[in-house]
Amino acid sequence: MASGELAVGEQLPPAAELAQALSVDRNTVLAAYRQLRDDGVLEFRRGRGARVASAVTEPGPVTEAAQALVTIARRHGLGRQDLVRLIEKLT
C-alpha cells in the first residue's frame, strides 16, 4: 500500500488465501488486517472483505515518531525550519 502497489478501494485477498500463499497461520493474517484497519489503512465491509481505505492517512507509527521529534526539538529550542533542515540533511 505504501509503495502504491495497491490502489484506494482495491480488495485484499481473503485471510485464508493470503495465509496459504505466505505459509502463515490464518490468524496471523487476520491480526495484521485488524491492525491495518485500526491504523485507518484498511476498511472492512460485511460480505465484501477488506479494502484499502479511501482516506489513507499517515502511518500511525511514523506520525507518533514525528510528534515525539517535534516535542523533543521544542524542548531543546529548535523550531520548524531547524527540523526541516535536519530532515533534509538526513535524507
Describe the structure.
With 91 residues, the chain is mainly alpha-helical. The chain has helices spanning 15-22, 26-38, 60-75, 80-90, and strands at 42-45, 49-52. Strands 1-2 form a two-stranded antiparallel ribbon. α1 packs across α2. The model has no long low-confidence stretch (mean pLDDT 86). InterPro entries: HTH_trans_reg/aminotransferase, Tscrpt_reg_HTH_GntR, WH-like_DNA-bd_sf, WH_DNA-bd_sf. Residues 1-55 form the HTH gntR-type domain. This is GntR family transcriptional regulator. It holds the Pfam family GntR.
Based on secondary structure, the structural category is mainly alpha
Main sheet summary = 2 strands, antiparallel
- SSE series: HHEEHH
Low-confidence stretches: none
Please report the number of helical segments. 4
Shape: elongated
Strand content: 5-15%
Side by side, the strands of the main sheet go: 1-2
Tag the structure with descriptive keywords.
single chain; mainly alpha; two-stranded antiparallel ribbon; 4 helices; elongated
Task: Describe the structure in brief.
The chain has 91 residues and is mainly alpha-helical.
Secondary-structure map:
Blueprint: H1 15-22, H2 26-38, E1 42-45, E2 49-52, H3 60-75, H4 80-90
Antiparallel strand pairs: 1-2
Helix pairs in contact: 1-2
Domain HTH gntR-type: 1-55
InterPro entries: HTH_trans_reg/aminotransferase, Tscrpt_reg_HTH_GntR, WH-like_DNA-bd_sf, WH_DNA-bd_sf
Keywords: DNA-binding, Pyridoxal phosphate, Transcription, Transcription regulation
